[in-house]
């Protein structure tokens, strides 16, 4: 298994880390989220070139291989990268039960964008449709799971406005005080509430820009949303969460950012916050419902069909349950 690595050395950064890596004659590079690597001028590529050239100068050897892994191996035009040697389309992953099955949830009548400067009211019909997340919450809470609602906004102002309404308006009662806003232009701080095992951190907005320390803690908080110890049931964000955001309990997504062939946003990326399963493969056929958005619904379906996933459009009230509750018969103990 090799020598024991001390924690202090494992956490080294910069020159010491590069020196330790390039001291080896045979180095293989494994890139996760590797769609970023295909920007030739990126710092990521520069780092790989530096490793290669340094190993070559020190030992005469080269990087022995570079393997790139990505859930979205496409460029900004939606075209697959040419050097792909193995591709698992989203439809195949759904059929294998590796990820949730996505649906598009539509209203019984056409959703209309209201004339209002406040995004929380401009998109009210879409948000109310997404609030049907309550049915998912009622279904899964008996299994000690905490389904989450994810709102994808177009800008930080919209995210702030929707978060404020969700946290205060009785119309969204189950989200009052339980909605977290995640973007880099936040103003506020983290506050510890409760005591002992009941203690948790909540983000409190104010007029002061968030400190680097609180922003780091907020990001940690965002990665712990699946936990029943977290008070939050809804995430409001701009675009998609950063890579490494491995929350599994998103069951409803409300995209308020227009999707189009020119938007440089892939439908798989829109789905990404909700594809991870709450339970191991082979158990319930878990669903993630994406609320209909008239600007992208047809393109969304067309793009995903190319991924081997003919996505079903269904009335939001007809989204089926995917779990069965089993209780012991107390008369036959």
Relevant terms:
Rossmann fold, 11 strands, two-stranded parallel ribbon, 333 residues, alpha/beta, globular, single chain, 2 domains
In short:
By secondary structure, the protein is an alpha/beta fold.
Question: Can you put this structure into words, describing what you see?
Answer:
- The chain is α/β, with parallel strands linked by helices.
- The protein has two domains: 55 residues, no CATH class; 229 residues, Rossmann fold (3-Layer(aba) Sandwich).
- The protein has eleven helices and eleven strands.
- The strands form three sheets. The protein has a seven-stranded parallel β-sheet, sandwiched between helices. Strands 1-2 form a two-stranded parallel ribbon.
- The longest helix is centred in the N-terminal third of the chain and has 17 residues.
- It is globular, with a radius of gyration of 23 Å.
- 27% of the residues are buried.
**Looking at CATH, which topology of the largest domain would you report?**
Rossmann fold
N→C terminal distance: 50 Å
| N-to-C series of helices and strands | HHEHEHEHHHEHEEEHEEHEHE
- CATH homologous superfamily designation of the largest domain: P-loop containing nucleotide triphosphate hydrolases
Helix content: 25-40%
> From the structure provided, what is the oligomeric state, counting identical versus distinct chains?
single chain
User: How many domains, as an integer?
Assistant: 2
Q: Label the overall shape.
A: globular
Strand order of the largest sheet: 5-8-4-9-10-3-11
Number of strands: 11
Q: How many helices?
A: 11
Task: Return the CATH class of the largest domain.
Answer: Alpha Beta
Instruction: Report the β-strand fraction as a percent range.
Output: 15-25%
* Mean of all residue-level pLDDT scores: 80
Poorly predicted ranges (pLDDT <50, ≥5 residues)? Answer: none
What is the alpha-carbon Rg in Å?
Answer: 23 Å
Derived from helix and strand composition plus strand pairing, the structural class reads: alpha/beta
């Amino acid at each position: 298994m090799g020598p024991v690595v001390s924690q202090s050395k494992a956490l080294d950064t910069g020159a010491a880390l590069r020196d330790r890596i390039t001291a080896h004659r045979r180095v293989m590079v494994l890139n996760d989220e590797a769609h970023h690597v295909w920007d030739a001028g990126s710092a990521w590529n520069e780092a790989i070139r530096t490793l290669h050239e340094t190993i070559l100068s020190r030992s005469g050897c080269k990087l022995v291989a570079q393997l790139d892994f990505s859930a979205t191996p496409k460029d900004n035009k939606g075209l697959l990268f040419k050097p792909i040697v193995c591709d698992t389309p989203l439809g195949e992953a759904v059929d294998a039960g590796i990820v949730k099955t996505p649906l598009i949830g539509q209203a019984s009548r056409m959703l209309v964008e209201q004339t209002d400067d406040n995004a929380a009211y401009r998109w009210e019909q879409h948000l109310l449709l997404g609030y049907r997340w309550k049915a998912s919450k009622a279904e899964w809470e008996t299994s000690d799971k905490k389904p989450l609602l994810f709102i994808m906004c177009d800008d930080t102002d919209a995210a702030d406005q929707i978060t404020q309404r969700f946290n205060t308006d009785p119309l969204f009662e189950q989200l009052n005080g339980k909605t977290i806003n995640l973007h880099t232009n936040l103003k506020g701080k983290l506050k510890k509430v409760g005591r002992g095992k009941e203690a948790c951190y909540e983000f409190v907005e104010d007029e002061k820009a968030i400190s680097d320390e609180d922003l780091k803690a907020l990001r940690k908080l965002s990665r712990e949303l699946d936990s029943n110890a977290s008070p939050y049931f809804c995430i409001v964000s701009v675009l998609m969460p950063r890579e490494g955001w491995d929350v599994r309990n998103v069951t409803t997504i409300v995209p308020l950012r227009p999707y189009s062939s020119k938007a440089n946003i892939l439908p798989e990326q829109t789905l990404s916050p909700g594809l991870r399963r709450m339970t191991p493969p082979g158990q319930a056929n878990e669903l993630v419902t994406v609320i209909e958005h008239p600007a992208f619904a047809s393109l969304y379906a067309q793009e995903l069909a190319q991924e081997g996933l003919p996505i079903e459009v269904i009335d939001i009230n007809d989204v089926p349950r995917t779990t069965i509750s089993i209780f012991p018969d107390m008369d036959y103990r």
